[in-house]
Every structure is written in structure tokens, then in C-alpha cells.
Amino acid sequence: MKRAAIRRHGQPALELVEAAVRLLRAAPAGALLAYYAGTAPCVLGLLYFLADMSHGAFARRHLFEAALGAAGLYVWMKCWHAVFAAKLRAHLLMEPENPWTAARIARLVLVQTAVQPTGLFVRLLAAQVLLPYVWTYSFYQNVGILGDGMEPGFGVVLRDAVRQARLWPRQAHVALLQLFGFGLLVWINVTAVIAGAPWLLKIFLGIESMVTRDPWVLLNTTLLAATLAATYLCIDPIRKAVFVLRCFQGASLHSGDDLRVGLKTLRHRALAAAALLLMGLAGFAPSVRAEEPPTTVPVESGQLSESLDQVLQRREFAWRLPAVKDGRTDEEKGWLATFLETLWKRLRGLVRTAFDWMGKIREWFRKTFQREPKPGDTSDSGGRVDWPAVARATFFVLLGGLVVLLGVLLWRHFRGRRPRIVAAQPLAAVPDLNAEDVTADQLPEDGWLTLARDLMQSGQLRLALRASYLASLAHLGHRDFIRLARHKSNRDYDRELQRRARAQPELLTAFDRNLCAFERSWYGEHEVTAETLGDFAQNLDRIRAC
Fold first, then answer.
1. 191 FRET partner, CA 20 to 30 A, in 358, 417, 458, 484?
2. Is the four-CA dihedral 419, 423, 424, 426 of positive or negative sign?
3. 443 near 474, Cβ under 8 Å?
4. Cα(257)–Cα(271) distance, integer angstroms
5. What percent of the chain has pLDDT over 70?
6. Which sign does the torsion angle of CA 291, 297, 302, 306 carry?
7. Which of 53, 240, 228, 36 is nearest to 137 (CA)?
């Protein structure tokens, strides 16, 4: 694309994304280190904040401190993003990075703290089509790039960020759309790796986990947040590099920085070529020695012409080939644009081949089932067999038979899928309450209570008391007051409940009474009566009411 067109419409979005990837690959390691030093703590802190606020039993007590810490981590991340952008700009301009003085760091923190937190609310409004989202998003990205502390004026940073956000809107929209599609593919891959890791551990190392026992546990908000956070860590550096290039190209419209960078690049290449030439002249030239005269081999003219044609088809002799339509070679287009163009040509060739085959099949049917009169043949058949007519009749008979056969098969298939009425039978998978390895998570709370009522009606009061106690454990486990496990004892559950429900003394008192009643009757010699079960049920109701 010509320079004048680039100045009017901006660099094509796909080429801009490719240039951002090349910039990240060529940038010094300190740039990415600065990015992840600010982003990783913020992402991990926000994940912990979401998990704690969603599942913590006492999250309400420390909500203010946790929210203040999350806000501090967010400002910390935005400040390091500005450092990351400054390192990329210095590398792009081929200049040494400006020193980080105390005044510059203070200006950076002031600008990012004052502007970036408002983006959390303004971008939400922009997403509801109340404001243009891409312009709003570009403004806050530009503030993170331009507000690196070098500009002393706060208003100048905001004015430059607005001016850069208004440049080349089509380029910004298309680039963000392409990055969104790429991010979706990255998220699918990250989710597949995280979900498949437990199965790989089980296959190769024999390690059993909750995921291998019940794959449905993967469907939770914590895993979704973790996969989105990992995708953000992979995609966001590319997005930041895209906006660094946009700011560089936008500023070059008035400052000419792109021309200076081009001249520096030519100078470095010239110096490298001169160094290689001097090394060759200084003594790296091969020694000359007498050689035997080369033997000449006769070559035919036809073979020589064929060899010349093959050599001239190489890439280095592309000057003799027809000119490219848009004036750009494969190197200028980039690997992604070249790949998409090649893929489109292959698909178009496959479609053309498919249509050619369809035309050949249609021509074959026409020649087979349509009789073409020979020149000079004006008489009727006169007893000859009309083979095309026979072929047409045979074809239609076979086609009709095939349709009937398919109809019969479909009818039998759908008739066999009708639901069959099966008589209900009682399930025998009831936990054995006499066994010592019975755990409360084998049945839900209602299942244990139903089993307790059945045992009471049959006169097995001791087993009914144990079923009621397991129902209370299942209830507390459902409310996340305790974590059910086979290795835990009753005292372990009691200590865990004392820690997590210390703010509810009524619940603790009711559970302690039921625990004492259960241990006296199950492990001791106390007889279980209807009155014992009644008191146990009243305490269980108090536990459920707390």
C-alpha cells in the first residue's frame, strides 16, 4: 500500500497485528518481564477475590479490605503496563530508554491512578451502546501508553490520547475484531489443556482426582474465570503492542519518527554490509591455487532451455514475472495474509473441481439416458431395441427401490426409539449403616432423612439415629461449614465447625448435643428411644434454621 494511502486510512489491520507480533518477538526481555510483573499479581489477586467472595463463609466481614486490595492491584497493573509500553516505544524508535527518575515515576502513577479506574465504568457504559466502545477502549489504551511520565502536563496526555483514538477507526475496529477471534481460539485451547490435564495424569501416572471421578465439576465459575485470566495473559501483550504501533504511526504524521527509524535501519544495514566487506578484504578471501582446466560437457539446446526456464521461475528472479495486483510481494503482505490468500485459492480450486465433476456426471447422464439421432437417420426404430429408454427405466426403478428401502429403514429406526414402559423397581443401592466406612456424602440430606424414617417404622432406632446424624453432616457440608471426607472423625467435624461457624452459637450448641447423643448411643451402652430421636430431630431443625 502506498504511503499516502497509509496516512489516510492507516496500515491494514492484519498487517498491524503481524507487526505487533514481530515487535514483541524483537523487544528486549525486560519489556515482557515488566508486563507480567504487574499483570500476574493483579490477575491472581482478582481470582482469589472472586473465589473468596463467592464461596467464603465470612467474606462479608473483610469485603472492604479485599475490595481495596483488588483496587490497589489494578492500579499496580496499569502502572506496569505503562512501563511495558515505554520499553516497546524505545525499542521501536531504536533509542535508549529514558531514565526512570522519581519525578517521572510520580507523574506516571498520578496519571494512571486518576484515569484508568474510570475505565472500568465508562467501558461498561460503552458496551451498552451508550458510547462508542472501540473509541473509548482506544482512549484508555492510549493513556496507558502516552502517560509514561515523560509529559509534565496532565491535560496534554488526555488531549493526545483523544487525538490518537480518533485516528483510523476502521483499522482499530478490524484489528480488535481479529484479536477477539484469535483470543477465542486461545481460550478454547487453554480450556482443553486444563480440562484434559487430570485425565492425562490418570492415564500416565494413575493419579485419581475429582475431575476423573465426576467430569461435571469442571462446569463452575472458578474454572471459567481461571481460563479467561490465562487467555488475557496470552493476548493482552499483543493488544498493547498494537496500540503502541498506532500511537507511533499517529505521532509520525507530524513528527516524522517513521522516517528517522527507516534511516537508522538503513544505516545499520550499511554498517553491517561494510563490516562484512572489510572482513572479506582483511584476509578471509580464499587462497588462489592452480586448478585443472574444467572439462566441458556438451549439452543439448532443448535441455538447456528447460533448465533456464526452471531457474527463472525461482523467487530471486521474480522481477520477470507478472506484477502483483495490489503492488505488494509475499514478504510485504506477511505470513498470515499470505496463508489466508493461499487457503482461499485452495478452497476456490476445490469448488471449481467439484463443479467440473458435477458437469462431467451430468454429461454422462445426458449421453446415457438421451438418444441422439444420427445424421441421415429419418426412419423409425423398426424393431430395434431402444437402449437409452431401457437404461432410463432401469435407473428410475432402482431409484424408486432405493427410496422405499430408505423409508423402511427410517421407519424401523424411529419406531425402535419409542420409549418403552418399564415397571418401576426399588433400588438396592442403599448404604449399609452397620459398616464403619459409611460417609455422609453417599446420600443427600433428604435421602438420609427418608432412610431414618423407614428405619424408625421398622423398629431399628439405633440405625435411624445414625442416619439422622449423617443427614446433619450432609446438611452442614452442603452449606460449606464442613468438608466431608472419609478420613475425618466426629471430633474433626466438630473442630472444623467451631472455626467456620463461630459467629452462630445456636448452631454449635445444637450440633454438640446431637453429637453427644449419637456417640453415647452408637459407641456406648445408652439405649435409643423415640424420645432420643425426637430431641435429635429438634436439634437438627435448629441447625437448619440457623
1. 484
2. negative
3. yes
4. 21
5. 82
6. negative
7. 240
Among 30-44, 252-266, 321-335, the range scoring the smallest mean pLDDT is 321-335
CA distances from 59 to 13, 66, 200 (A): 45, 9, 35
Cα–Cα distance measured from residue 16 to residue 173, given in angstroms and rounded to the nearest whole number: 12
Q: State the CB neighbour count (10 A cutoff) for residue 17.
A: 24
Cα angle vertex 382, ends 377, 384, to 5°? 90
CA atoms of 358 and 306, how far apart (whole Å): 37
C-alpha count within 13 angstroms, C-beta hemisphere, residue 265: 9
DSSP string, 348-390: HHHHHHHHHHHHHHHHHHHHHHSPPPPTT--S--TT---HHHH
pTM over 0.70: no
pLDDT tens digits along 77-103:
999 999 999 999 999 988 888 899 999
Biggest CA–CA distance in the chain, Å, is 120
Q: Comparing C-alpha atoms, which of 88, 101, 203, 187 is closest to residue 146?
A: 88
Residues 6+ apart with CB under 8 A from 67: 49
